[in-house]
Fold this protein.
Amino acid sequence: MIKKIPSVIVVGAGNAAMCAALAAQDAGANVTVLESASESERGGNTAYTAGAMRVVFNSIKDLQAIMELSEEEISSTDFGKYSFEDYFDDMARVTQFRADPDMVETLVSRSHATLVWMKEKGIRFQPSYGRQAFKVDGRFQFWGGLAVEAWGGGPGLVDGLHAAAEKAGINVNYHTRAVSLLIDEKTGSVIGVRSLQDGKTTDWQSDSVILACGGFEANAEWRTRYLGPGWDLAKVRGTQHNMGDGIKMALDIGAIPHGNWSGCHAVGWDNNAPAYGNLDVGDGFQKHSYPFSIMVNAKGRRFLDEGADFRNYTYAKYGKLILEQPGQFAWQVFDNKVKHLQRDEYRIKQVTRIEASSIDELASNMEGVNPEGFIREVKDYNLAVMEEVPFNPNIKDGRGTVGLDVPKSNWANLIDTPPFEAYQVTCGITFTFGGLKTNSSGNVMNVSGNPIPGLYAAGELLGGLFYFNYPGGTGLTSGAVFGKIAGENAVQKSN
């Protein structure tokens, strides 16, 4: 008896796609990857991230199963723990309890095992010292439940996954844009993909297809249609290739739209950054030390609570609020007392920054800002700071303000020690929350509530997981978890 080897096509070449490809290969399939970008641009949005991955861990041993830790790192660091309950509760809380609980349970319960599997594939992880831990009294303390990142950030993760794929004999076809799905007219099953490559149409036949080619964040027309007016003006944080192609292909054959189509992950981004991400800069255009700043708009007024929560629980929703301000920009203003707490991205060459020895001088140099309004805002803010409460960047310290229309709940410090710095930011969109509905096997569902035979999905184009907001580091983890599930089941269902 001759046993047929199942074939799987994966559309996309980022974290979710490559995890799907590797899992399908492990399950015994011949895997082909189609990537619309060039080899130098491969990796989708993954390549533009810092590589943070939110994962359950209850002990040092759990972390050691994922990454190597030296004795010095262990002795000088308080990693804490991040339980199943912590992760689940964070997902529920930041999404206002709209996230699909079954998807959340899958994500959380499989997060640790998935990263262990990735490590076995050659992916290296390290503690996220530079982003999620501050040193206090000679000891690092992690905060916000996020302790792990890929070695070399997003680019390192992409390179590691592609190295694993090459070792496994998985072929990646670049400059190959998938445009439609091939359907067996008798069974209704997806049996392949039609692509465009150098102006030529090619039909790729397979037993199943996995869509993992991102959301629609690079599509200005779709952003305006689904996110609303003004979203065409946002900067695109990552790749220019995420045009919603995978979502459209699935909807064209009857897939049901799902999730928060009017929501997205959007951050504070350098105001003069290019229209799309730049791999030479990566995530350096982001400006995420705002909890230690005050942020003002063109009127010179604060418009959000910079200290509402740890950065990784607010940064993904504050881009939207910046976009809503006059001129679609804001300035982050720092006192010299907290300069040492700024992330590395504040020290890159490509940054919109001014420095001044007085508030008056700063006010006169903040382009687009009403100087009188800003000076008055700083004065009112300083009078409202609860100076009697100790400042501690590792906890929600309760050092807030009193009597302001827009409070600052934590990490409030006087703006009184020069030199003062200000950084101009706008909205940078990372990915969209709306997409496709899948079942527990990663099988895409149709408008009748039934799985579409042969069609699977993972990554950004999944709907139902994120609403309104996003816990930092969850995107890459969810991509890996659901990518692995899709890859495994795409093969099992085709046998």
Observations:
- The chain has two domains: 7-215+433-492, 265-428.
- The chain is about 30% helix and 20% strand.
- The CA atoms of residues 301 and 377 lie 6 Å apart.
